[in-house]
Amino acid sequence: MKKEFHSKGTYVRLLCYLKPYWRRVIVILLLSIISAFVAVLPIQILGIAVDEIRMADRHANRNVETTHALSLPAQKANMSGDEPVLKKKYSIPVAKPLLKMSGYIHNHWFLEYNYIMVTLVFLASGFLVLHAISSCISLAHGYITSELGQRLVYDMRNQLYGHIQRFPLSYFENNKTGDIMSRIMNDVNSLEQAIVGPVITFITDMFKFFWIIYFCMKLDWQLTSIVLFVCPFISLCTYSFGKRIRRIFRSLREKTGDLNALIQDNISGIRVIAGFAKETEELERFKHKNYENYFLHVRILRLVNTLRPAVDLITETGAVAVICLGGYKVLQGQLSAGTFVIFFPYLQMMYGPITGLTRFYNQVQRAIASTERVFEALDTPVELQDAPDALPLPVVQGFVEFKHVHFMYGKDKEVLTDINITACPGQMIAFVGPSGSGKTTLTKLLPRFYDPVKGDIFIDGYNIKNVTLHSLRKQMAMVLQETFLFNDTVRTNIAYARSDASDKDVEYAAKAANAHDFIMQLPNGYYSIIGERGVKLSGGQKQRIAIARAILANPRILILDEATSSVDTETEQLIQNAIYRLIKNRTTFIIAHRLSTILHADRIVVLENGRIVEAGLHQELLANNGLYKKLFEMQFDTQEKIKPKPETETGEDMKNPEPVIDIEELRQTMEW
Ligand SMILES: Nc1ncnc2c1ncn2[C@@H]1O[C@H](COP(=O)(O)OP(=O)(O)OP(=O)(O)O)[C@@H](O)[C@H]1O
Q1: At CA 525, angle to CA 519 and CA 527, rounded to 5?
Q2: 584-637 pLDDT tens trace
Q3: Whose CA is nearest to atom 29 of ligand 1?
Q4: Where are the chain's structural domains?
Q5: Would you say the pTM of this structure is higher than 0.90?
Q6: 440 in ligand 1 pocket by Cβ < 6 Å?
Q7: 441: Cβ below 6 Å to ligand 1?
Q8: How far is the CA of 472 from the centre of ligand 1 (A)?
Q9: Using CA atoms, how far apart are residues 354 and 311, in angstroms rounded to an integer?
Q10: Each residue of 382-405: pLDDT tens digit?
């Protein structure tokens, strides 16, 4: 299923996730432009202040020399700034309007104060106001951007999870759970890292870059040229490092998926590990995988940490060149001190976008490595889809037919060959046969977990391929060999099939499943949390919860897969009674290795190597003298024969009898 992706295509596809939020994108872009413009201005104010102070200084020095030669009014005029002694040359672009404004303020409101002081206070206030504006914009910008980023992650994660849920079972059989989780959790995050953060920063940076170049060119084109000359070296350096980082990052993602899979596997199988005292080996295995992760992380960090000083070295070289040439120009009177001073912050601001540009490239490439894994999952076809003209299956009676059904997993060999079975409503059909004969596979075809490769299955005359999956599965319930319960309350687990069930419904279902009594002994009764996969319950208790769940679902068709294979005789009796109630009036397909549990089946189908070799009633099959008889005798010899007892006798025979419940009575009480 591996597919080749192209970075550009992947990126364009990623950008499409922004489509529903285009208004927000425009707002973010506008804020980016404004913030880029505003960010440049405070530095200019700094430069103007330096020039003003310097000019005042020179002016004062000159006054000391000439005070005695000037009349008092002339001195006042000088200090008031009405008639500047030195002719001002505005090398900084915003200097002229700002100084005019400060002159106006001084002349109209603060004439008695020193002109330079008024100008400095005015410039400092301007500096503060611009910073405040810049901070407000950054705040709004950051708020909207991060919200949008998380929104995209939310959307994509929903989409991926929804898609993965509809995958054929084979996908989950062939892929590690930890890896699937890693795609849903870690890789999806890359959407934010690939689009929102870098793209927005990139756009803002580009605006800033050209805006600063424009200013710097106006200030001094020669110094600007030095800065621009250094830029390609920075790009080259970060690009080559980035390429290596990206390659390592791709392996890191895979290794993280492997590590997740190992953790998931080991935590689920912790009892097996403890049971076989394999903790030390498992720790070693974990250490090995963890070391691979650690090693790749370290390699990435090493590269990143080398990159930073390398870039710094290049930028510092540029700065030194600017200091030499700039200093020379100041001494020559070709450049004001203020301009020289502000050139350095601008220099940093100019290099910022250049390193940012390559960082952007690296970030995007790294994120694309993750995104490709997400798209790979999203592009995996949902094999079992509703037919285009599929109709909902109406409420059925439960007449089931398998007609010439063949099936194979993959393309290796047929697991089921020419299966023909007919089940009338309310009948119990039992599948018997040696291990690996295809019993479980046969029951998986009914809810369409897999489709036959040949032949068809009908329910009440409807071909199950032509009805919607949802309506088909709604009419069935399964009690499987491995009972799966959610880490939630007993109540939630029982009501899983019918979320609208009342407490009364749940309780009646539990009583019918012989589960009520043990539930009441749990610390919080029906509201007790049963742990992951129901670890706080015994095998028999879990099965009874599963039966209660099936009873509450009230399906027309039931699939029972060796529901009593792992419990003691006493519990089996309880479970058997629960099952008898459950299967009454439903078409039931049951797989049981203990043949004693299916002696009363309406039809016993005997499978061998995926073929039906015998079918009929228990007595007929015994008389046949075939495989069934052989299996039956083998069991008779090796295990105690367990006869199903009528419900009325059950309670008396047991050490800890549970109340026997009449299902008909229950049915009348419950509003089903
Ligand atoms: N997901 C799968 N992918 C590939 N082969 C499979 C898969 N599941 C089962 N098989 C193979 O299909 C054959 C039938 O398996 P199935 O589980 O249906 O047998 P079974 O009769 O239910 O066995 P048992 O009684 O031991 O549970 C076996 O050879 C098995 O190895």
Answers
A1: 120
A2: 778 989 887 777 778 888 999 999 999 999 888 888 888 888 888 888 887 766
A3: 436
A4: 7-378, 400-485+557-669
A5: no
A6: yes
A7: yes
A8: 24
A9: 10
A10: 766 677 788 888 888 889 999 999
